[in-house]
Amino acid sequence: MTTDTPPPAVRTRGRNTRTELLGIYLNDHLSAATAGAERARYMAGSLHGSVLGAAVEPVAAEIAEDRAALLDVMRRLDVPVRRYKVLAGRLGERLGRLKANGHLVRRSPLSSVLELEALRLGVEAKASAWRLLRLLAESDERLEARRFDELLERATRQLSTLEALRVQQSRTTFRSA
């Protein structure tokens, strides 16, 4: 007698992901990714023409690409985008620009240090999400483990770049003349 079902010891990939809670999780990450992409773009633009600006520009482009990758994952999992969370991310980023930094009209050197720290924290959170999704890819055919491996590698490079820039900018900002 033959059967079409695999023996119990064989693990099959299907649609084994609880999307209700994952949907909340991914929308929270989308909110943060929106804020991070906006902040990185703003930082690159406000520093355009400087050495730091040139170093931040490619990272900002990758952060925007990573946000798009998250949206693709959400589509694959049929997770609806919660527009109010995207809006909250945008508004939060814009409100963050109003922080007191010791300068009213021009950009403070402290702004770059704080923005690099914020971007680094955002990339850390993004890497955690990629690791979770990589784990889920083992049992959900809608997710590609290889794609999350690539995204994790990119996040690791971004972390390294942002940390080097943060250290360099901190030396410049806090060293007395």
Features:
0% strand, mainly alpha, elongated, 177 residues
Notes on the protein architecture:
The protein has 177 residues and is mainly α. Helix content is 72%, strand content 0%. The chain contains 5 helices and no strands. Helix 1 (19-46) runs parallel beside helix 3 (83-96). The chain is elongated and about 60 Å long. It starts with 18 loop residues before the first helix and ends with a helix.
Short summary:
Helix content is 72%, strand content 0%. It is an all-alpha fold.
How many beta-strand segments? 0
Radius of gyration: 20 Å
- Could you say which structural class the secondary elements and strand pairing correspond to? mainly alpha
| Biggest beta sheet summary | none
Q: Tell me the strand percentage band.
A: under 5%
Roughly how many Å apart are the termini?
85 Å
Instruction: List low-confidence stretches.
Output: 6-13
State the helix count.
Answer: 5
Question: Helix and strand succession?
Answer: HHHHH
The dominant shape is: elongated
Mean pLDDT equals: 87
Helix content: over 70%
Could you give the topology of this structure?
Blueprint (H helix, E strand, L loop, with lengths): L18 H28 L4 H26 L6 H14 L12 H29 L7 H30 L3
